[in-house]
Amino acid sequence: MSTPGAATQDAASIKPATGKLGIMIPGMGAVATTLIAGVEAVRRGLAKPIGSTTQMGTIRLGKRTDGRSPLIKDFAPIAQLDDLVFTGWDIFGGNLYDAAKTAQVLDRDQLESIRPYLESIEPIPAVFDQHYVKRLTAKKAKTGKNKCDLANQIRNDIAEFKTKTDRQVMIWCGSTEIFLEQAAVHQTLEAFEKGLVDDDPGITPSMMYAWAALKEGIPFANGAPNLTVDVPALVELSKKMNAPICGKDFKTGQTFIKTVLAPAFKTRLLGISGWYSTNILGNRDGEVLDDPESFKTKEESKLGVLDYILQPELHPDLYKDIYHKVRINYYPPRGDNKEGWDNIDIFGWLGYPMQLKVDFLCRDSILAAPLALDLCLFLDLASRTPSLRGLGIQEWLSFYFKAPQTAPGVYPEHDLFIQQMKLKNTLRHIMGEDLITHLGLEYYGE
C-alpha cells in the first residue's frame, strides 16, 4: 500500500509541464485541422473539449466513501491547452484554414471565428511516395537522393521547431499506407538505418517520420493502421532514446462500438454466430481506403478485435464458428459523416437465435480529434515520467487504438473498459496512489 510520503516522492520525480509543448502532425487533413481548430475554440471559450479524457475525465482516488474524484488534468501534471503549439507536414499546400474548408468537418461560422489563427499555420511540404498511398497525388512533397536524405530533412524540420518550443510530440494523422508485413529491414536499428540509405521498399514514409522523431528524442503516436513503429527496430530506438511510442489506428466509430458490445456478450456468455460490419464514408480516408492495398491494412486492424476479446479457444461453444466480415465503401456524398452499420447474429439459452442491429451515424474527425489530443498530452506526460519514458511501448494508452501495440508475445487488450482501467491505474501508479481493484470487501468487514 502507498503511503502519503511515497505518493509525494513518486509524483515529485515527474518533471513539471513547463513551457511550450509542440505538437507535430504528419498529415494535416480532416483529423488534424479538427483537432487544432477545436483546441483553439476551447482556448477561446467558444466550445467545450467533449470526448477528451485529459480535459473532462475524472479519476477516483481511495475508497468510494472518500469522495476524492479530481479531474485528471488537476491530478497529473498534464500540459495545459494554452501551452500547445502546432505544426506539421502535408502534401496539398495552403494554410490550415484552407485545409479545414476542404475537409468540411466544421461549419463555416465556427471556422470564421478562428480563421486568423488557422491561416497562421502553413504545413511544411511532406515526405510522400505514391507507392504506399495509391489514391493520393502530392502537390507539395520533399525530394531527396534517398530515404535517409528525406528522413534527415524531417529531422531538420524538427530541429527548427525545437527552437520555438520546449518539448515536442509527434502524432501521425496521415493516410493509411498499403499493407506491409515485418521484413529483415525492420528487425534491428542497424538494419533499418542501412535500409534508409539503400531505399529499402520496406520503409514507408510514416516509418521515416517515426525514425526522425525518435532520433530527436520525441515521442511518437500512430493514428493510422500502418505498420510504422510496430517493428523491433523502432521499438529499440524508442527505448534507446527514452522516447515513448504507441499505436495504432484511432478507435473512433464502429470499432469503438464493437469493443463495448463484444465484452458485454462475452460477460453474459451469449454466443455469436456472425458479425457483419459495413462502413460508408466519403472523406479523404474513404478515398484512400478505396484502394485494395490500403483497405487490407485497415481490415487487419478492424478484424483482430473480436478474436482477442471473445477468446474462441477458451469458449469454443460460443465463438469458435463466428463469421466476421468488415467492409468499407467509399461514398463521396457522405463526406466526413461516416455511417457504421453492424448486423450481429447472437444466440442464447439452449441455442435460440437473436439479432442486434446498430447504425452509428458518426462524425469521423469529431470522434478522432479528442483522442489525438489526449495521446499528445499523455505521451508528453510519459516522456517526463521516469518509470514510463524508457519502456518504449506505452500499452496503457491502448484505450485509444483499434490495434494496440504490445510487447512481443503479449496479446493486446481490446475491451474498452479494461483499457480505461489500465489507463487510470497507470496514472494512479505514477502519482503514488493506491490502485483501484473494485474488490470492495473493505466496506463490509468488521
UniProtKB/TrEMBL annotation:
<feature type="domain" description="Myo-inositol-1-phosphate synthase GAPDH-like">
    <location>
        <begin position="253"/>
        <end position="365"/>
    </location>
</feature>
<dbReference type="InterPro" id="IPR036291">
    <property type="entry name" value="NAD(P)-bd_dom_sf"/>
</dbReference>
<dbReference type="InterPro" id="IPR002587">
    <property type="entry name" value="Myo-inos-1-P_Synthase"/>
</dbReference>
<dbReference type="GO" id="GO:0008654">
    <property type="term" value="P:phospholipid biosynthetic process"/>
</dbReference>
<dbReference type="GO" id="GO:0004512">
    <property type="term" value="F:inositol-3-phosphate synthase activity"/>
</dbReference>
<dbReference type="Pfam" id="PF07994">
    <property type="entry name" value="NAD_binding_5"/>
</dbReference>
<dbReference type="GO" id="GO:0006021">
    <property type="term" value="P:inositol biosynthetic process"/>
</dbReference>
<protein>
    <submittedName>
        <fullName>Myo-inositol-1-phosphate synthase</fullName>
        <ecNumber>5.5.1.4</ecNumber>
    </submittedName>
</protein>
<dbReference type="Pfam" id="PF01658">
    <property type="entry name" value="Inos-1-P_synth"/>
</dbReference>
<keyword id="KW-0413">Isomerase</keyword>
<dbReference type="InterPro" id="IPR013021">
    <property type="entry name" value="Myo-inos-1-P_Synthase_GAPDH"/>
</dbReference>
<comment type="similarity">
    <text>Belongs to the myo-inositol 1-phosphate synthase family.</text>
</comment>
